[in-house]
Amino acid sequence: MNNNNYESLKQGAVTNWLKEDTSLYLLKKAILKAIKPFTRQQVDFNNELVSKIIEMDRQLVEAKLEFGLRHKLVEDMVVNLAQRIQIPEIEKAVDEKNIDGGAVAALTATNRTAIDIQQPIVNSDKLMGKLNGRHVVFRFVPTMLCNLRCSYCFLCKEEKQDKATMFDHFTADEWIKAMGNYAEYDVDFYMWGGEPFLLEDTRKIVKGFTEYDHVVYGRIDHNMTMVEKIVRDCPSSKVKINASWHTETYNFEQIVEKAMLLKSKNMIGMLNFVASDASMDYLKKHNLDLNWLINFFAERGIFMNVAGDFSKGNDAAYREFITQYTTNKDWDYIHNVYPSKGVACDAGTSFFTVFHDGSIKSCASDEVVGNFFEGTLKREVRTCPHESCLSLVSYCHQLDNEFSPVKHLDDYVLRNTIHRRKTGILRS
Ligand code: SF4
Ligand code: SF4
User: Fold this and answer.
1) Which strand (E) or helix (H) includes residue 166?
2) Measured CA distances, 284 to 23, 98, 145, 268, 373 (Å)
3) Which is the closest atom of ligand 2 to the Cα of 340?
4) What is the rounded CA–CA span in Å between residue 276 and residue 216?
5) Which of 187, 192, 194, 314 is 20 to 30 A from 241 (CA-CA)?
6) Torsion sign over Cα 353, 309, 276, 392
């Protein structure tokens, strides 16, 4: 591929693909599939072209949100690529109707060029992984307290009685000001608990954080008890709420109303439904069919997740039931089918927990690697020291899968929407 082709790929392709309504998910998957052999060999792929491809990937996820999901074949993408950059292997594959082969040929060719170019995207740096150098995720735990008492709660009694909050040492204004220290990064923040919005100051910092240009995304786990206050006090389409439907607390009509309120501000990442015995009994009692519900919400632009109840473990029949709704691979990561110890992972370069005193650690080591209030952050590629990595915000950082750690919740929704089309759960 010559430089002109590279330029056209870099500058025009994403826009054109969008206009032509090609399959965003499959395109992304093909790109990542092409990159994967290089990540396995741990070749340094911090070069401009790969960084641009990953940037395209980010744009594709964003475009999905803007344009809505489209269901078309990867064939469109391959034909477009073949016409645009005229790689003989692709044209041959298209002639032979070997669509996957064509996609991989196209993208492998772009990677060959990438490896040739060898232009570092960051100075110095040993940074290596799925991401370019600017992306970081900061995880906050405002409080472990919660205002609900779900019978299937995953937290133990001691955790739920921990009264410490992130505002014990620093005020909301101080947290907001400190976020300004990280303007050189594209910051993605994540909040969980307990119930993060139990504290009024959480809404204040969400508002403050999202007003920064460099804060590009935030996922917050929420039990739906404070939706009205969230949309009133900190509305932002950068924030994607992982909205849990606790059937012991809210009925179907109430949850629809709350989900639609979040949707009205483009703030719902997904509606999370844990398929526990209690919640499945609730559906049965109220004559609500799970597949109908999924389609009901999908028609309103809301992805209803069906999460496995952890207490059921890796039971084969339950796995078969849940994987109608989520990919096998997501199930496998969540159930530790791929133990994480020793796996190369981006967590040391881009996924950090910020503790209440401002100290920063990554799950890739025990070391304190920075201080939020001093604006420091040491980033290093590491291998995982833990036996398991069971959360979708974390396992997407492992280098042995193609999941995107950038806007990870959107990526999860995207891949599982496609999966549901394949399993026939989604009507359109
Ligand atoms: S809302 Fe979540 S944290 Fe709170 S009791 Fe229910 S499951 Fe536990
Ligand atoms: S726990 Fe997960 S995200 Fe953290 S280092 Fe291990 S593999 Fe990476």
Assistant:
1) none
2) 36, 45, 31, 26, 51
3) 7
4) 34
5) 314
6) positive
**Bridge-partner residues for 271, per DSSP?**
243, 304
Encoding tokens for residue 161? 């009685």
Is 106 within 8 Å of 85 (Cβ atoms)? yes
Strand 368-371 and strand 359-362: the pairing is: antiparallel
Q: Compute the distance from residue 146 Cα to the ligand 1 centre, in Å.
A: 6
The per-residue pLDDT for 356 is 97
pLDDT digits (tens, 9 = 90+) for 59-91: 444 443 333 322 233 334 434 443 444 445 544
pLDDT, residue 95, reads 53
* Domains of the chain by start residue, with CATH: 3-117 (no CATH), 135-423 (3.20.20)
d(CA 348, ligand 2 centre) in Å? 9
Over residues 332-338, mean pLDDT: 88
Residue to probe by mutation, ligand 1, list 143, 149, 153, most atoms within 8 Å of CB: 153
Q: Give the Cβ contact number of residue 375 at 10 Å.
A: 14
Protein residue closest via CA to atom 4 of ligand 2: 363
Q: Which two tokens stand for residue 168?
A: 């014990």
**Centre of ligand 2 from the C-alpha of residue 110, in Å:** 29
